[in-house]
Each structure stands twice: as C-alpha cells, then as structure tokens.
Amino acid sequence: MSKHLLLCFLFFLSFSQLLLSSCFSFSNSTRLCPHGQALALFQFKQSFSIKSFSSRHCDEYGGSTSYPKTEYWKEGSDCCSWDGVTCDLVTGHVIELDLSCSWLSGTIPSNSTLFCFPHLQSLNLAFNYFFGTSVLDGFGRFSSLTHLNLSASGFSGLISPKIAHLSNLVSLDLSLGMGIEYALQRFEFTLNDFDSLVQNLTKLQKLHLSGISISSVFPNSLLNRSSLISLDLSNCGLHGRFPDHDIHLPKLQLLYLGENYYLSGNFPRFSENNSLIDLDLSFTNSNGELPASMGNLKSLQTLDLSNCRFSGSIPAFLENLTQITALNLDGNHFSGKIPNVFHNLRNLNFLDLSRNNLSGQIPPSIGNLTNLHDLDFSYDQLEGVIPSPVNGFPSLSSVVLGYNYLLNGTIPSWLYTLPSLVELDLSHNKFTGCIGEFRFHSLERIDFSMNELHGSIPSSIFELVNLTTLHLSSNSLSGTLEASKFEKLRNLDDLDLSNNMLSLTMTVHSNSMLPNIRSIDLSNNNISGIFSWNVGKDTLRYLYLSYNSISGFEMLPWSSMRFLDLHSNLMQGPLPTPPNSTNFFSVSHNKLSGEISPLICKASSMSVLDLSNNNFGGMLPHCLGNFSKDLSVLNLRRNQFHGIIPQTFLKVNYIRTLDFNGNQLEGLVPRSLTICRELEVLDLGNNKINDTFPHCLGALPKLQVLILRSNHFHGHIGFSKIKSPFMSLRIIDLAHNDFKGNLPEMYLRNLKAVMNIDEGNMTSEYMGGDYYYQDSISVTIKGLDIEFVKILNTFTTIDLSNNKFQGEIPKCIGNLNSLRGLNLSHNYLTGHIPLSFSNLNMLESLDLSSNKLSGRIPQELTSLTFLEVLNLSQNHLTGFIPQGSQFQTFGNDSYYGNPRLCGFPLSKKCKTDEVLEPSQEIEAEFESGFDWKIILMGYGCGLVVGFSLGCLIFLSGKPEWLVWIIYKNIHKKIVRNKRSTHRRGTRRS
After folding, report:
1. What residue spans of 607-752 are helical by DSSP H?
2. Measuring CA to CA, which residue among 98, 101, 82 is closest to residue 33?
3. What whole-number distance in Å separates Cα of residue 461 and Cα of residue 445?
4. DSSP code of 926?
5. DSSP conformational letter for 207
6. What is the pLDDT of residue 402?
7. Strand spans (E) along 128-200
8. How many H-runs (helices) and E-runs (strands) does the chain carry?
9. CB-based contacts of 353: which residues, under 8 Å, 6+ apart?
10. What CA–CA distance (Å, rounded) separates 929 from 914?
11. CB of 123 within 8 A of CB of 146?
12. Of all helices (H) and strands (E), which one includes residue 383?
C-alpha cells in the first residue's frame, strides 16, 4: 500500500514538473509579438496626432470613456501588452485591435502599416477622426476579420467594394457619427456594391450603416437572414415601400430605419416568435393605423414612431407591451382619446404623445408610471385637469403639457414636490389660481406663459439656483419685484415676464447680476422711472422693455447687445446711444428730443433702426444711409427733422424700408436710391420735398409701396424710359402735390402686382416679416385717413387725388382687377367713367369726386360686390343712378353736386323714356364684347360691296329696281319719325 502511494506521489511530482515547464514555455512563447508587427503598430501610432477633440462624442454615444490609448505604447516592449492590442495565445500574432475612442486625428493612406496584420479578426477604430479618409481596398485584405467597426470616425467617399469580400464578417459597423464635422463627411455605397455586400456577407449578425448614402429600395433579402440580431439602416436614403409581409427574424433585437424620409409602408408585421427590443421608424413616410400584431412585441423596450404619418386612435393593446421603457409617437396624426392602458407599463420611463390630434382628458392610469422620467403631451387638444399620481413620481424630470389650450384648473400641488424635476412646461393653457411654492431646487426650466394665473411670483422661484429658463409671460401676475431677488439665479439664461402687471424696484449695484443672462423680456408691465438694473453686462443680448412707463436709462452698458426694444415708453431727453454691437434698436413712441448724434453710426451691424414718433429735430447725419452693411429698416417718421434726405448708400446694401414720413425734409429725392435693389417701402409723405416725379425709382424691382403725398412735387409725370417700370408696386400715394397733365397711363398699365392676385393660393403675411418690426403706413381710403400698423401683402391702393391732373381716365385702369382702393378726386378729369371699371371686382373704395366727369354712371358698376364706399360728387354726371347690389347702400353724399343725376337715393325722379346717349350706346357696344378688328373687317367688306354696287349703277344707268327699294325704305323711316314726333308733342301738351 505504501509503495503504491509512493509511486503515485512520484508520478504526480514528475507530472507537475512537466506541467510547470510546459506552462513556462507557453508563457515565454506568447510574451512577445512578432517584431514586424510591433514595428507596424508603432509606425501606425506615429502617423497620427493626439487630440481629445477627435473623440469628444465617445462618452455620450460610444458608451465608454475616451483616452489616448497609443500614448502608453512603448517602443521595444511587448506589443501584446499594449492597450487595445490582443494577440493569439499560441502564435503571438495580433488578432484584435481596439483603438476606439483613442483621440486619433489624421488620415489613413493606402500604404498604411495598419494593413500589415493578415491574421486580424477584430478591428475597432470608432470615435476617432480620420477626416477625408475613404474605406480603402486595404480593409479587404483582412480575410479572417469577423468584426469591423469604423463608425463615427470621419471616413468619407465611396466604400471599397472589397468590403463585400470579407465573408467571415459577423459584425459590420460603418455608421456616420454625430456632430457637424461628420455631417460634412459622407460614406457612400454604389447600388451594386451594396447589393453585393448584402448577398455575400451571409454570416452577419450585426449590420450598422446609419448615415451612409445607399439611395436604394429596402433590401428584402435582409429579411431572410435568420441570424440577424441588429440592423441599423437609419438615414441611408432608402426609398420605396417597406415589405408588407410578415417578418420572421426570431433573433432580431434591434431594427432602426429612421430618417429615411421617402421610405413608406405600414407598421411592420412581426410574428409571435420574435425577440425585438428596439424599433425605430421615426422620420419616415410610414402611415396607416397601428396593427393588432403590434401586440406580439412582448420583449419591446423602445418604440420610436415619431414624425411619421400614422393615424387612427392609439390602440388599447399597448398594454401588452409590458417591457416597454420608451414610447415616442410624437408628430403623427393620431386622434381620439388617450387610452387608459398604463396600469401595467410600470417600466415606462419615456412617454411622448405630443403634436397629434389627441383630445379628451389625461387618463388617470398615468399615475401608475412610477418610473417615468419624461412626459410630453404638448401640442395636442387635451382638456380638463391634470390627474394625481398613485404613488408619486420620484424619478420624473420633465413634464411638458404646453400648447393644449384647454387644460385647466389649478396647477396640482404634487408638481411642486417632485424631487428630480428639471423641466415643467404648462404654457398656452387655461390654468388658473396662484403659482405655488417649489420644495426642491432641481428645476432648470419653467414655462407657465399664456395662462390665467394671478397673484405674485412665489419666493421659492428665486431660490432655484439651477434655473436657466423662466417664462411666466401673458398671465395676470402682479406685485412688485425687487431686482435684488434675482441675485441667486446665476445660471439664468432666459427671463420672460412680459404681458403681466408687474413693477420692478431697482437699486444700484456695483456688481452685475445674472452673469449668464442672454435674454430679458419685461415688456407690457408697470415698470416706471429710470431703468438702472445692472444685469448681464457682458452676456445680455436681447432686452425687451416696450409698453412700460420707463422715463430713461442711467446707461446702456451691455457690450454684447443685439436686440434693444424700448418703444412705447415715456423716455425723454436726448437719444441714448445703443451699444456698437446692436442689430435692432427701437425707441419709437417716446418723447425723446434733440438731434441724432453721429455716434449712432458706429453700430455697424445695425439692421433695424426705428426712431419714429418722437420729437427729434435737426438735420440727419450724412452717415445714416451707409453706416451699416446690414441695414434693412430706417424709420424716422413723425419727428421734426429738416434738411435733406441722406444722399449716400452703400453700393451693396439690403435696405428694405425707408420711412421719412411726417418731417420737414426738403430738397430732391436722392437718385442714389436706385442702388437700393432690395427696397420695398419708400415713404416720403408729409414733408417739403420739391421735385419732379422720380422716374428712376421705376427700376427698383421689389418696390411695393411708394408714398410721396403732401409734398411739393410738380410737373407732368409723362413717360418713363424704363422698359417695365414699377413691376412690384401695389400701394401708390401721390396725393396733395402739384402734378399736372394726363394721368400716367404708362405706369398704370404696368402695375402687374395689382393684376390677377390669387389670394386663395397666397399666405396672408404682413410686410416686414419680423415679429418685432412690421411696416406701417397712413393712407386715405374709404373717405377716412387710416393708419395701417401692419401692411397685408394683398392690400392694394392708388391715390392720385388733390393734384392738377386733367384729361380722360385711362381705360387701362380696368385691368387692375386686384385693386382695393382708387382715389382720383380733386383733379380736373373729364370724359366718362370708363366701363372697364366694372372689371375691378375687388374694389372696396372708389372716389372720383370733384372733377369734371360727364355722362352716365355705368350700370355695369353694380357688379362690384365688394364696393363699400363710392364718391362721385361734384362732377357733371347725368341720367339714372344704377340700381342693385352695393348701389342700394350708398347715400346722397355719394352723388351730390351732380344736378342732372336722378333716381334713388336722390329725391329727383327720372323720366321713364330717357335712353342712353348715342356716344354711350356705342361705347357700351364696344366695351361689351365687339372687337375693333371685327369692325374693321366689316367696314372693309362693306366698302368692297358698296364700290361694286356703285360701279354697277354707273354702268347700267340707274337700275329702277334698286332705286325703288332705297326710296321705299327712306319713305317708311320718314313717316315713322313724323308719327313718333306727333305722339310726343301730344303728351307734352
């Protein structure tokens, strides 16, 4: 027995020595990789620079922390021990290279030493920046490669077709990265190469090509790969229709097809035997209702159908998706009520049903979602009160219910007690009551704007040290705010308290408050006195203080200011000079006075300068026309400026509006205005300009509004040398000047912008195109002086009144069938009212009063069904007043001063046997459809026939039959006329 044990011990000892020897030998053989491969790796390292910027997206999208792996590679050491390098345990050859998130920056040339590793099985270069490098043929040499990841690394250009030869690939990821630097780069497959890749790589389990330009229909063959686990073809330019048949991919866990904007189809039908976890069809053209087969997705965790065209109601079988954590149905056409299906969806942490047509109340089962982080039901039509949670929302960080317009009641108290709440948006609803006190300081964004809240702003808001956005505008909040309360809100970026009833007390602080503030809107409140709030000295860019009672400023200290709106206050004294960085500056409707300092011309980026409706005087600085290359609007209306209009404008400029109305400016219209090719509005009205008509303005291609009224313009307007002048003009006011001669027919004929406006296909907009500045004009229309604070893009009017025009009214005015107002009153016009006026079917106001017009009022004018105001008084019109339609609504004032008119509404009755005067009968015939060409043809034919008959009579010696026919007809007409005269004489007696 003892011998047997001894033999066993000796055998074990000898075997142990052999085993240890073998292990040491094996370890020694794998410690060093081949020298050539170590050298190749080190040369590959040296071909790049190390920049953390190259991998900055790794932490957010790569799932790991970036660091410079190759920095720790030491020449002469074992490359198998280098970070990111894995060697074969037997041969020592490099078989895996993981340099993802390694801060590498540079290019990979075709002769790179990267391609010197024939045994490589896995290569990961993701989240670096190899800008401009294409996927080269060299990648096709790795015949043993099973895993290739080049995602988010700045590769671009055509992908080598040799990638399709890597038949052992199990995982291929060439996805484009995030960020602008990757958007400028773009992978691209040719259609044949992509088909080859799909056909040849039969072992693929993971295929991620997000962002690669494929521009193909969806490859149906991929749906036959039973081995497929993860498929990402998002943003690949896929088009056509996604297959409608059932999908049998039992291992498929991830399917991303989002951002293929032209890919259509219904929701995919998955068999019951599926493993799907993530499905993304967002930003595709997918449509239809959600099918019942969607309930088969028992393992589904994330579902993103946002920004598609799905419709119908949200199905109740959503309650079967018990594993779901994220549900996004934003931006579809779902309608009806939100089903009460959330009792069992306890894993749900993200729920977005925004921007649909959902109605009804928020279902109470929402209160069961205890793991919810984000809730967004905004831009729907929900109503009623917000339900209370069952067990609270300990993890809820975002609640967005804005723009439903019908949610009401008081704001629930539980919303003020959420410990993790970061965003709370209840804007554009009908919530009432007071704002409560917040218990926790996690909030970063609050938006309660456009509700019916009242009371004061709670003190707890001023303790929210993480707050970046505070919007409480358009409520009925009141009380006095002390500026010092904002001292703790050092992260505040955007403050909007506009359209309330708040006042503000300010004390002078040596240190600027709110060091990160960019935008403050306190407009339309009760703020008064000197504005002295020292806030955002280096960061404030947008300040809105309009519609208050502010009397002035201690200073305008903001070095980064862009938008400064101080209009409609009680400011007095000289003009405060805006910071040189200002783009928008408005002090209109104040009581400012004095001259404009030339210092304002240092604001070389100014786009809108509005000094209107003040008491400024003096001469305009010469620099005002050319101080800013960005100048779009210069509005100086209703001040007391004198002197001349600035004569110099930049050769390349973007001036759209010049408004000098209501000053005392003199001299000539600057001919240099012709270089203002973007000019749309030129208002020089109510000044003392002494000039002839500025024909040169007809060359401005975008000029829509020209107002020269109430100046000293004079002379004949005459003709223009410009081929098609004033092609865009639709508002013309030359009233109250000394123009004479005929009406400018050439210009009136070319007003294409007043012809054939198709309002049905136009979007109603106001001139100016800016929420904070829109053009305004004062015109005389419908007998009233009206100020349009906004100019609708379909409004048209012509006012040539109170001049010395003479002659007949051009018939071509009848072609201006989109004209709404026409005023030719107080001139010396003669002749008839043109029948062509019956074509002005959009006309609302017609004033031809105080002229010398004669003849009848055309009956055809009764077709003008939009006509509200008609003034034909003080002329020489005769005959019947037309009856019917709008003419039944006009009173005596429309016709007085025409003693030969008769009929309603005048007391003078008409005689029943009055007929049209011959001249009007003839004009009526011509205007009602006869063409001069036809008339001339008839005249020519008659001349030929008459000449032939004359020759016949002359040659045949007065044929008796023809003489008898002519004599007999003449005799009948004479007898008939005598009888008619006799009857009229009898009646008169």
Report:
1. 745-749
2. 82
3. 11
4. H
5. E
6. 98
7. 147-149, 157-158, 171-173, 187-188
8. 8, 66
9. 314, 329, 330, 334, 338, 376, 377, 380
10. 24
11. no
12. strand 381-384
> In whole angstroms, what is the distance from residue 549 CA to residue 172 CA?
66
Q: How far is CA 39 from CA 36, 50, 117, 275, 675, in A?
A: 5, 19, 11, 45, 67
Can you tell me the mean pLDDT for 77-90? 93
Task: Report the residue count for the chain.
Answer: 989
Answer for the pair 904, 882: CB distance below 8 angstroms, yes or no: no
Instruction: Inform me whether the pLDDT recorded for 26 exceeds 80.
Output: no
- pLDDT tens digits, one per residue of 849-875: 999 999 999 999 999 999 999 999 999
Which band of pLDDT confidence, cut at 50, 70 and 90, is reported for residue 28? very low
DSSP H/E element including 43:
helix 35-46
Segment 936-945 shows an average pLDDT of: 44
Q: What is the model's pLDDT at position 722?
A: 86
Within a 13 Å sphere around the CA of 278, how many CA atoms are in the beta-carbon half? 12
CA distance linking residue 116 with residue 413, whole number of Å: 67
- What are the φ/ψ torsions at residue 38 (nearest 5 degrees)? -60, -40
* Phi and psi, residue 486, nearest 5°: -80, 5
- CA–CA gap between residue 328 and residue 305 (Å, rounded): 6
Mean local confidence (pLDDT), 86-107:
94
More confident of the two residues 249 and 26 = 249
* Token reading at 154: 């700045």
Yes or no: say if 786 and 810 are a contact pair by the CB < 8 Å rule: no
Residue at 794: amino acid letter: T
- 493, pLDDT greater than 90: yes
Q: Please tell me the number of Cα atoms within 13 Å of 820 on its side-chain side.
A: 15
Between the ranges 182-196, 833-847, 898-912, 930-944, where is the mean pLDDT highest?
833-847
CA dihedral (873, 877, 880, 883) positive or negative: negative
Strand 398-400, strand 615-619: pairing: unpaired
User: CA-CA distance, 701 to 198, in Å (whole number)?
Assistant: 56
The pLDDT tens digits of the residues spanning 423-475 come to 999 999 999 999 999 999 999 999 999 999 999 999 999 999 999 999 999 99
Phi, psi (5° rounding) for residue 51?
Answer: -140, 125
Q: Is 111 exposed, middle or buried (0-12, 13-18, 19+ CB in 10 A)?
A: exposed
pLDDT at 216: 85
The token duo for 969 is 């007809």
Single-letter residue type at 315: P
Share of the chain above pLDDT 90, in %: 68
Q: What percent of the chain has pLDDT over 70?
A: 87
Backbone phi and psi for residue 601, each to the nearest 5 degrees, phi listed first = -75, -5
| Antiparallel, parallel or unpaired: β 519-521 and 494-496 | parallel
Backbone angles phi, psi at 876, to 5 degrees: -125, 40
What is the SS3 assignment for 248? coil
Lowest mean pLDDT among 230-239, 340-349, 757-766: 757-766
Report how far apart the first and last C-alpha atoms of the chain are (Å, whole number). Answer: 172
What type of residue sits at position 20? Answer: L
pLDDT value, residue 771: 63
**C-alpha–C-alpha distance, residues 612 and 683, integer Å:** 13
3-class secondary-structure state, position 938: helix
* The two structure tokens encoding residue 604: 């070389």
Q: Which of 232, 242, 290 is nearest to 262 (CA)?
A: 242
pLDDT surpasses 90 at 787: no
- Between 76 and 397, name the one with better pLDDT: 397
Give CB contacts under 8 A, 24+ apart, made by 251-254. Answer: 251/205, 251/226, 251/227, 251/275, 252/228, 252/276, 253/229, 253/277, 253/278, 253/299, 254/229, 254/230, 254/278
Mean pLDDT, the chain, integer: 86
Q: Between the CA of residue 199 and those of 53, 232, 246, 887, what are the distances in Å?
A: 38, 17, 21, 80
Name the phi and psi angles at 188, rounded to 5.
-150, 130
How buried is 190 (Cβ within 10 angstroms: 0-12 exposed, 13-18 middle, 19+ buried)? Answer: middle
